[in-house]
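Exercise: predict the fold of this chain.
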Amino acid sequence: MGGLAAGTAGMLTMGCRRDTGSTPPESGAAASGPPAPRPEDFGDKTLLVLGGTGFLGPHVVEAALARGWEVTLFNRGKTNPQLFPELEKLRGDRDGNLDALQGRRFRAVIDTSGYVPRIVRQSAELLAPSVGQYVFVSSVSAYADFSKEGIDESYPVAKLADPEVEQVDGETYGGLKAACEAVVESILPGRATNVRPGLIVGPGDPTDRFTYWPARVDQGGEVLAPGTPDDPIQVIDVRDLAAWMLGALEAPHMGVYNLVGPRPPLTIGGLLEACQAHAAESSTLVWADKEFLEAQEVEAWMHMPVWVPPGAEGYEGFTKISDQAAVDTGLTTRSIDETVRDTLAWWREQPAERHEKLRAGITREREEGLITLWRQQQESAAKAQARLAPSLRPRPATAGRRLAWALG
């Protein structure tokens, strides 16, 4: 559908140039000097989180604290600085001001805020001599394309048209993430864990690319729903992602992992049914097919969040990415019912100004207009079919003539 690639900018941007590259190497030559530290060299559970106060970061911190980790945050102090007053907070800037990290040792680091290879290189090179494991949060957008089902971690990654580009947008996001992965692995060979999540959802979602559905269905009335109820979707609850990453530190698990879910597989119908189950008001789902939505310039993913039409060119496997490696190393996913319930509870607590305009999806006014137009087109098509029906009905005839009519 038009605009699909550009519309997925962000945690799941898919619009970078998809020249076939290769998966970042899983091992490499160690730098000269003292032996690189390993996780088992550290007697304590010390964790550095780069970022830590956005969407994913707080869930990582909460999961780490619950499992007995001693957590330190490094960031600029601009996003939600009031969070975690009890923790050590190091102030600085990833681009050129890492002084607060000089001389510090940590068993592990989780990088939730890396987008540009040059900047990721700065932190990776500084920390390499003093950390046992570096977990980098990448994205499934790092893949070269989604043209096959069951994409696993060996699938080729995206390659930037200009290796020097640093602008993060719908054309570059995936390639930049893939390049960041390669930087981390090259600097910490055998000590890097590159995590490729799908759409991250749950309480605290700042994008509304999932929250749109619980919030909209909660209002009741007629809800425009995309495609068919059986169309597959994939999401990962932010808490399940955080829990897996902490498990990857404790095992430890190195390498590349897709973090998608849930299990069993989910459909857009299943998601909307869960939304209805927890909504304050009753609603009716009005399913409109992908051809109608495309004709009306209703974009998959941004206007109809979470959903990508089955068979969309270049995205045939986008909703069927393999999670087997993560499952084999401990990934468990909660039910979509729980994710919807908790997301909706969080959403209801947000201030009125946050509710005024969702950051994804369509407005109620446009939704009403689209539903009206869809119904008009369906009624017109039904009337046209009814007019044609008499002419298509076979006249009484011999068996031979009936067969000739059927084959004609």
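Check your answer against the key: The longest helix spans residues 364-392.
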